[in-house]
Amino acid sequence: MKCPYCGYRESKVVDSRPADEGNSIRRRRECLACEKRFTTYETMESLPMVVIKRDGSRQSFDRNKVVGSMLRACEKRTVPLSRLEELACEIEQNLQNCLEREITTNMIGEQVMDKLREVDEVAYVRFASVYRQFKDIPTFMAELSKLLEEK
């Protein structure tokens, strides 16, 4: 790491601790030439994900869209926004971990449904009805039956 004061390329780490809620590491360094201290932050590189929509178009992944869709499903329910943001972070992390750079809306939708099923069944049914595009009452009832069988 290059010293910001003298430009020397060698330094030693004096202190290291987690930062940004564990998403990065803060390091205090000391230059071996001028002995001045400076701080660096180490973060994990995240590769951009591209979402392939149903119509074949592509756009970059946006966690806010996931939160927004869950928020609509949880309207007038007792699910706090902070919980939905946690779920969206978990979904994004799962998608990053699968190492695919191109993901389908189906992959996202299924994960959202799984998370909502754990949190609030009414929100799950609301989301599923839009996501699965139920055409009639029998298909809607079939989904409700599956939910009841799992209990």
Describe this protein's structure.
- The chain is of the alpha+beta class and 151 residues long.
- It folds into two domains: 11-43; 50-150.
- It has five helices and six strands.
- It has helices spanning 63-73, 81-97, 105-119, 121-131, 137-150, and strands at residues 11-19, 24-31, 37-43, 50-52, 58-60, 102-104.
In short:
With 151 residues, this protein is of the alpha+beta class.
What's the arrangement of strands in the largest beta sheet? 1-2-3
* Fraction of helical residues: 40-55%
Tally of contiguous helical segments: 5
Radius of gyration: 23 Å
Supply the number of structural domains: 2
Mean pLDDT comes to 88
Counting DSSP E segments of at least 2 residues, the number of strands comes to 6
Structural class: alpha+beta
How would a textbook summarize the main sheet?
Answer: 3 strands, antiparallel
Q: What low-confidence regions span 5 or more consecutive residues with pLDDT below 50?
A: none
Q: Give the N-to-C terminal Cα separation.
A: 56 Å
Shape: elongated
The SSE order reads: EEEEEHHEHHH
Strand content: 15-25%
